[in-house]
Specification:
Layout: H1 2-16, H2 19-34, H3 40-72, H4 78-96, H5 121-132, H6 137-147, H7 156-166, H8 169-179, H9 183-221
Helix pairs in contact: 1-6, 1-7, 2-3, 2-8, 2-9, 3-5, 3-6, 3-7, 3-8, 4-9
Length: about 230
């Protein structure tokens, strides 16, 4: 169980390096400052929408996989486990080679329509989550790991929710820094946003390769179980 928790934590922290979520958060913060109001409602509504769709997708996915396993009387053998590790590892390495547009800036179009009603950012977050969650390789890998547990841990929905919360830690840190008025917090806010925007995609690529190589190596170490 400890290995599963550490692996899920690693995938969640990897998922947290999402430049787009940080960019939208900073856009809402900037717009709120121009309008002389707190960014708390807008940002929390947006992140709440992303969190809700992420949890719903995760729970539905695990339940669907578990239903199919029970329906087909599927047995997760060591051969299937290590083939799964090999495939996931190769996918992570392949994804690391795909060019990523680090300049995804949401601009005013994310905040202008909801200036009067900041809570509507939740709708934007939910909509964005519908497009983002099914294509998140770390999240899909984490759900596959949870689904592979036999029997499923009684607390697996909590694991899904905790993963989704950790995956939003960076935008939440950005919000916390934006709410503080001290010079140190403002410097940290600017450094964090610039650092994530500049180094986020390369770091994700490197971590994808690291996770992928670890999985591939573990599968090859147990090559005798692949056949």
């Amino acid at each position: 169980m400890a290995v599963l928790l550490l692996t899920l934590l690693g995938f969640a922290l990897l998922d947290a390096l999402d430049v787009l979520l940080v960019a939208i958060t900073t856009a809402v913060v900037a717009d709120s400052r121009l309008a002389r109001r707190s960014p708390l409602v807008g940002v929390l509504s947006f992140l709440g929408g992303v969190f809700a769709v992420s949890v719903l997708f995760g729970v539905a996915t695990v339940l669907g996989i578990d239903f199919l396993v029970r329906l087909l009387d599927f047995d997760l053998t060591p051969t299937l486990r290590y083939w799964g590790e090999l495939v996931i590892g190769l996918v992570l390495i392949a994804v690391a080679a795909i060019p990523v547009d680090a300049g995804a800036a949401p601009g005013g179009r994310w905040v202008q329509p909801v200036r009067k009603y900041p809570w509507l950012m939740g709708v934007i977050g939910f909509t964005l989550g519908l497009a983002k969650v099914p294509t998140s390789v770390p999240y899909l890998a984490a759900l596959a790991l949870i689904s592979a547990q036999r029997p499923l841990p009684a607390s697996w929905p909590v694991l899904v929710a905790a993963y989704c919360l950790v995956a939003l830690v960076l935008p939440l840190v950005v919000l916390a820094l934006a709410l503080r008025r001290t010079p140190g917090a403002r410097r940290m806010y600017r450094m964090l946003v610039r650092g994530v925007t500049r180094f986020g995609p390369p770091v994700v690529r490197v971590l994808f390769v690291v996770f992928g190589v670890v999985l591939v190596v573990d599968a090859l170490v147990h090559a005798g179980q692949l056949w």
